[in-house]
Amino acid sequence: MGVRRRQRPKRRANSASPISACCPRTGFKGWHALAWLREQGIAVPEANNRAGSLAGGGFAARLADTELLLTGSLDGAADTFDGLLAALGEAKPSGVYPVPRSDGSAWLTMTGRHAPSCMAKLCGVDLRSKKFPEGCVAQTSVARLNAVVVRADLGSVFALHLFFDSASAGYFWRCLVDAAAEYRGAPVGVLALRRLAAEVTPATGRTGDG
Amino acid sequence: MSTRLPEPAGRLIDRTRTVAFTFDGRSYEGFEGDTIASALYANGVRVLSRSFKYHRPRGVFTMAGRDANTLVQVGPEPSVLADRRPITSGLAVTAQNVFGRAERDFGAALDKLGRFMPAGFYYKAFFKPKGSWAYWERVLRRMAGLGTVDVHTPHGPFDKQYLFADVAVIGAGPAGIAAAVAAAKAGAEVLLIDENPYLGGALAWGREDPDGSRLRALEASVAAYPTLSVMTDTVCNGWFEDNWLALIRENRLSKLRARAVVMAAGCDGQPAVFRNNDLPGVMLGSAAQRLIRLYGVKPGSRAVIVTSGAEGYEVALDLRDAGVEIACLADLRQDPPAAPGDTHFPVIAGAAVRAAVPGRGGAGVGGAEVARLSADGRLGTSIDRFACDLIVTTVGHHPAAQLLCQTGARLRYDDDAQMFRVAGLPETVFAAGSVDGIFGLESTIADGTRAGSAAAAAIGLDAKSSERPQSAPAGEGAPWPIFPHAEGKDFIDFDEDLQVKDILSSYAEGYDGIELVKRFSTVGMGPSQGRHSALTAARILSRAAGTTVDGAGVTTVRPPVGPEKIGHLAGRAFQPVRLTAMHHRHVALAARMMPAGAWMRPAYYGTPGDRDAAIHAEVMAVRENVGLIDVSTLGGIDIRGPEAAEFMNRFYTFAYLKQPVGRARYVLATDIGGVIIDDGVACRFGDEHFYVTTTTSTSDSVYRQMLWYNAQWRLKVDIANVTAAYAAVNIAGPKSRDVLAAIAADVDLSADACPYMGVREGLVAGLPARLLRVGFVGELGYEIHVPASCGEALWDALMEAGAAHGIRPFGVEAQRLLRLEKGHIIIGQDTDGLTFPDEAGMGWAVSVKKPYFVGARSVAIQRARPPQRLLVGFEMAKDDPLPEECHLVVRDDTITGRVTSVALSPVLGKIVGLAYVAPDQAEEGTAISIKLTDGRLVTARVVKPPFYDPEGDRQAL
């Protein structure tokens, strides 16, 4: 799907966007969690620390043999996972427990070709495009906070999705903006991300080697 | 006066751009690309600094940032290397360690007193009589030092960053470039690092590449590989385990993790030792060549060269080409091979410089005394005197192997090459070029290719291996370029003003190893870290001790390689701050926020001037009416699964197997040593579901402990830290039920349906909530936990519903007082890192019937012993002096305990507190003495808490 050129979002070298308020996410834990989610039709990645796309948009990030993080699409409704949670509440299977990611985990997305260099100021994991390809997940420390980092590009634009302690969102936001300033990075709204996500991947391929 | 040479000399300067700066208050001009030292040299300024001890004049020596002679002060920044720092417009440079100016230093009189200041003199001279060092230390620190620290230096933007590479190459000379290209060719991602602003190393300033074609070819080969990145102006300051390299470039410390490393850092030219060998105008041959080719500066008018090999002849030819008259070349070799090229300058074989003769004013070279060497290397008495303003030495090399030595490699002396060589490298670290004793352009390139290929192969890439090439003879050094003078001033370490006799006297004092000599004499301890003194010291010691140079050895090398700023180590500050969902409501209500661990919490609501009144009012609101406090900072952990109760029973000290659903129970956690680490409340919301609270700031550590233990126990439970997912408040006070009932219609809050320590789930103001009827502050009250995104809505709803009842928000200060009145302890305040449950009066929370809990054995052992201290309540009259936390409880001359909590209770009208005391002081009614800050003793009376509502009637309403 294309967008008209004048509507094309301006591509900054680096940008960070808060999408906690409006983008659905949830999680499930427990020794039967992955099996139960498969039964519900969720495409669970085959390996830990891998993420895969979900049919309705968004992605599933497998954090352990016993834990999965789910996101909806960037323009998904807040109740995206209500059906899944209701099914869980009804069935009450042993070994499957919801994780309140919407409240517990803030979600920021850093996009652009300088994102890996910017993140290198905050995180010891090599997040460059070739070393951290699409679908990679890192559970690590970013700016001294526990964080889940998921590589899931938006259209052709390199994108790292960061999930971290929601109570530290203000601090974390300042860290990202400060680190991005060197690369003329700046905050962008979720609408820009939605447009990026909707763009067709050009032949030039993705960047992000920093 | 300008001594600039025409182009092509001066490849780093842009002659179209002049830059004005000052040195010691005088104005100078240089060109863009100049360093402070090159610009000053071009302006005829030879004295850049004064020496550490004798205040002798010092000037350019290496022109490579490798020595301490060029350390200057730049504005507030001390100890800047003048031969590395570029000039910028308006730069204000001053000399260091001078009384006056560099050129005219009143401290120079100390040079006349040198004989009274041998190595280690201050160890002996200033320590008797006892206490005199305190005086002399101040005098000596004023007389000797490096720069001035400006405590008002503005904060600079320092940064840190991680970098990654398959192969890191340190040093971008011919060997380093060849190594980088070879590794990149094999498919490696390579980072090539050099401290200079240019590539090529010696090729950029030496005589081996007259038309620059070889350097251009090497630069082109670097550019040909997209996987080969270059960082110039970057110092690799340390090697650490697993090839973790510290790189410093401007204000950034980069932390590079490489899979393999090639060190091609080159070598340091070594000084010849003769009288006055430290005068400005005496320099290494490489320094003279750098001045010429990099900066277009003519090093002098008339030169004497002392050398031990072909390198000196090349320098002489460069000088001659630059218009410097060659007074003579003294070749240490008795029978040197034919000089290369058409020299046309006098060569004296088997001769050395015996002394530099100071010029007019004593601050530079005015001449050189050259003497013949006997067959055994001693100077003869026949002297030829040459007028000159420049003495250049090329008598050998010492590998720049600091980084290699940090990897665990050793330096072994090679008697053939007359230099130390590197031995014993780790599997993924390689040396290439002159740092490994390989000299000559073709040889170093071949050696670099070998090392780069080997590095690529070491990380599993397909790369051809090759043999180590033969070194060209360019590196040949003299075995003994040391010519002590009867009148001294024959320096072996310019940093510390050490002379030949200082090493000999150290040995004579009994310091017979190089490490001991270093510590007594301070050789190698200055800013240049032995680059130009280690080899000489080893030679002198070996001859004194009758051992080999290898036997004398060199001292241990440790990071950092060069100076680094505290700002580099600090970098950007990461200080996580956690805010609750209601934070902005508190700010709007004029709360004074305070840190509580990583969290920010309201201390009280009001201005600092009204602090006590505000806290008093908040306390009274809770006791008499209703108050609301944000307790979102409490940790929240969900324990779910069929064995959740068993898990709780093992992790906490109390009993949980029979805890009814819908009830809360106190939890106390001890570590394996039986020490209290946390407390909270366990709420049983289902047979398989406990929701446990922890104290503020311990949720992460408790959660980790839970995971760690269950990794061993393998119980069928899931443990989830949901601290940030829930916002929570505590509404407390006699009217709290009325307020809550108004917005929680579907929850029966009656005392029968929801008694003290009951827990419920339901809707509060339409929000899904967990209700905990607990009583930390000793009144009827409810903790309400809702999803964090609902926190503000909950707060607003309660404040609105409570408005008619005069609800008042209260902060941490009021809560501390309220809980103290109830005698409730705070973990971490009323306990410390050694507190057992019984000591803190928490024995009631330890189940003795269950078979196990974490720390059970330690608690049992502790219980079998008489207690060492006990936590008791105490009270004092309202008007007594108010003790503070940590004031000591004393008995006669003995400390028996300390105050942990204390406050004047507005409700009780007296001072109440908790304190550790000796067991025999714990009896009710015992008088204890508390020592105040001003030394006064006040008496308190031991009482049994709670101080307020001892029967607990109010919280059980």
Describe this structure in words.
- The complex is a heterodimer of chains A (210) and B (957).
- Chain A has helices at residues 33-39, 82-91, 101-104, 115-119, 169-181, 190-198; strands spanning 15-18, 25-29, 50-53, 59-64, 67-71, 97-99, 105-111, 137-142, 145-151, 159-165, 186-187.
- Chain A folds into 2 domains: 15-21 and 104-198, Gyrase A, domain 2 (2-Layer Sandwich), CATH 3.30.1360.120; 25-102, Heterotetrameric sarcosine oxidase (Alpha-Beta Plaits).
- Chain A is α+β, with helices and mostly antiparallel strands and 210 residues long.
- Chain B has 957 residues and is of the alpha+beta class.
- Chain B is built from 22 helices and 47 strands.
- The longest helix of chain B has 18 residues, at 441-458.
- Classes of the chains: A alpha+beta (210), B alpha+beta (957).
Tell me the total number of β-strands of chain A: 11
Biggest pleated sheet of chain A = 6 strands, mixed
Q: Nearest-angstrom radius of gyration of chain A?
A: 17 Å
Low-confidence stretches of chain B: none
| Major beta sheet, strand line-up of chain A | 8-9-10-7-1-11
